[in-house]
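Handout, page 2. Input:
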Amino acid sequence: MDLQKFNKLLNRYHKGEANETEKALVDAWYKSYQAEESGVSLDDLQKEQIRLSIQNRLAELPGIKPSGSVRRLILYRVAASLLLLAVVGVFYYTVFWKRPSDAYSFIATATGKIEKVVLPDGSVAWLNASSKIRVPKTFDGATREVFLDEGEAFFEVKRNEHKPFKVHTVALEVQVLGTSFNVKSYAASADVKVTVSTGSVAVNRKVERLATLSPDQQFSYEKNTGTYSVNTVNSGNEQAWKDGDTYLRQATFDELALVLKNTYGVSLKTKDPVIQKYQFTLRLHGNVPVEETLQLVQSIHNTHYRKEGNDVILY
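Output:
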């Protein structure tokens, strides 16, 4: 729908001549200005497209070189029109193309639990403790897409060159054809990590390709800053949690606390700023009692701990 047609639609709407579908489109546009209620937003690419379109349209104005308030008025009108088209597109996608919630299977794991999930194409996802994933009941589109809403998962993807496999997290999208890889995306963690065991994995941020990974490469993405790095790791250690083992290498206090929370349901805390800066390298066995694990933790830096309910205070 171009701008001229949409202007006619607005005229019909205000004259009370629009049909129900047309009314819904215009109502969606008006509601889009209430961003928090509608949830409609533009990504960086869409904003850049709007900026370029505005420049092009201003340049096409015959014999007019607007300036000052006149130029700003024209700019606002063009921007509003282009924003309208973007919102209409989002509306059409939301109403007509987005899968309903009942088309998904929702799988969640409890503290200390690991679950194997067989996907519609026969691929396998292993879910670590305290994780949540949404899986379509069928892969009937051009791609195979799942949503790791929280936590960590290891994927063994069946190769299909005609149907790419995608894993969506809050911050990133991981795309493969057929491979095995680990995605760690806990809300309490400061970063998202993607580690490749076999094959090749592409990591995207919206439409931007950030990296293409090979076996034993790990992509780390800082959620707060948007910075990232690629390092060489032992991919076997990164997926060992499937067998009940967790390897921590120079882990921060918060990273250790997250593992203990997911494994045992206890909250590791400290009031000592020196301890807060400690790093921890160790191997945790999920079938080992929590007391034995805490004794191992305190021995690394000669600290002590005490339990207060579900809280473990390191001092």
